[in-house]
Design a protein that fits this description.
Elements (H helix, E strand, L loop, with lengths): L1 H30 L3 E3 L4 H21 L10 H21 L7 E3 L17 H16 L3 H29 L2 H5 L12
Antiparallel strand pairs: 1-2
Helix pairs in contact: 2-5, 3-4, 4-5
Length: 187
Amino acid sequence: MIFVYVFIAVVIVQRLAEVGVARSNERWMKDQGAFEAGASHYPVMVAMHCCFFVSLLVEVTWIKTSSWTLWSVVPLAIFLVAQMIRVWALVSLGKFWNTKIIVLPGAEPVKRGPYRWIRHPNYVVVIAEVLLLPLIFQAYFTAVVFSLLNAAMLMVRIKAEEEALDQGGKYSEKFEQVSRFVAIRKK
């Protein structure tokens, strides 16, 4: 059981470190003249992610769903690959990466790293994490409920983000041949 808590704690610490990076990037971008969009849904998104971890911890603790099985290897392997893609996406965006929608008018959209093939690789990672982290420990309730909540949040989030990026530059024009979530080129 201690492995479960350590593993989840490592993921939480990773998220908190990312929030620190995001705040630093936000300050830098705003100093360059960037604006924020989608601020009204951001607290809801943060609350959802916090509740995700609470639900996961409750489910693995009180419902005792955290036994390790051979099945756990599959979601764990995919989860670890998703972490590599997350780092690749964050490094590719550099100072432009943020947990908020912060747009620097006139900045060229980033089209390196995974952004060459997918408009929103970090959201693909979040979708995978919200589903797979609970599945590693057979926390099926958390996996299903928060995957649905995350899907609803991303519908709002991606619309707001793409509209803000279009307002700040030529995002849609630059990415019209790039799929939102699947690594294929549109014809």
